[in-house]
Amino acid sequence: MANIKSAKKRILVSQKKHDKNKSIKSSVKTAMKKVDAAVAANDKAAAQAALLAATSTIEKAATKGVYHKNNAARKVSRMAKAVNTMA
Fold this sequence. Notes:
Largest sheet: none
Number of helices: 3
Oligomer: single chain
Order of helices and strands: HHH
Mean pLDDT: 96
């Protein structure tokens, strides 16, 4: 454990950031799984609704700096491609 006051504060701040980032990443993964499940079930309407929600979640994560903007764009692009190529 740290002895210096500033080091103790850094530990607390970094733990708080870690928890927040983990929560955001978890919600992004859940949203992506919902899109994948709808695509696997071949339910176009549900897939489009899930894609809209997932896109919003991913863009918010990128805005907050949890994901790089290119990473977020890649995730959205791959999901959109999967939904658009459904029969």
